[in-house]
Model the fold of this input.
Amino acid sequence: MPRQIRTILVTYPEHNAIAEAKSLADTAGYSVEKIVTQKNITGSRYGVGRGKALEIQDLVNNMNIDVIIFDEVLKPTQQYNLSKLCKVETIDRERLILRIFESRASSNESRIQIRLAQLRYDMFRARDKVRLAKKGEQPGFFGMGKYDADVFFLDIKRHVTILKRKLEREERRRMLYRIQRSKLGLQTISIAGYTSAGKTTLFNALTGESKDVGRELFTTLTTYTRAISVRDTKFLLSDTVGFISKLPAYMIDAFKSTLSELKYSALVLLVLDISDPILEVKRRYDSSIRVLNELAVPVGKIFYVLNKADLVGESEGVKERVDKLDMINRENCIAVSAKSGLNILNLKELMVKFICSR
Ligand SMILES: Nc1nc2c(ncn2[C@@H]2O[C@H](COP(=O)(O)OP(=O)(O)O)[C@@H](O)[C@H]2O)c(=O)[nH]1
Ligand SMILES: [Mg+2]
Done:
């Protein structure tokens, strides 16, 4: 295995912000060695204040850090200043999300949508970059020394037109792929939910002791999809990128196409972190349902997995919390702990029952 990329994560001090940013970094495959927090990380020169920036510089030097992950949107100048100070690459929140999408793109169509979003990201930053290049601070950066911003924009626009045409051709290919998949006779169960709800932990718990059936047969499968078998019933289990809070508008198409397979899933396990404050759980439940609806997933195919039940104290039991959620089809709901294994076997039974009753 290649050496993991060692990172410092800069985020807000709130527990939820830290947990989310850490999960995003994990999902992108980075190893978070240190978390640095500050109340305001949108400051002018380095994103963080000068003192904090120097602290990060120190940590980078002492901890053999390869990359700084900055859990906010950075202007190119800020990114440049921090990178120059610390002598390592700085990735901002949007770049990080784009990298996650890129690593999880399941179809050519989503790869193209992601490419479009990446171009947008670059386009927003082009003007600033040109300015930097002109000041001679980043010679050869993007080859922009010679180029004018307008030329660059035009170039990107042309690129976008070509990609959109490709996209239309992709539609047809995707149909064929789906037909092939259903010919294998396997239905897909997908795991959805917000970042850090515990999707990957659940995926591992569910695939852990089940035998991987004929993986070599499914050349289209990725590390995030496994063919598994529970009591002689075979199906595909798929871990998704999930929902990301504060997703910028220009990334929505890329996000949706990355998750478009959900529409063809026989069952969607919607993972909710039941240990969050109840209003937060409710808010995430509501917006998850809204997104699933937009992705054309019928409510009847949604199963609510209330995860991290091990963290919910006796005093405020799971049931009481469930009552407050006011869920549609609340009988399709199970409290589990992906970490401790609590109720995982029961969940498997329910999944099989659901698949077989179709
Ligand atoms: N206490 C507890 N922690 C959990 C449970 N499931 C996941 N976690 C933790 O929650 C964090 C996010 O989990 P992860 O599976 O990466 O979430 P994802 O972003 O939805 O894939 C990790 O630190 C996990 O160890 C659980 O059932 N109980
Ligand atoms: Mg995950």
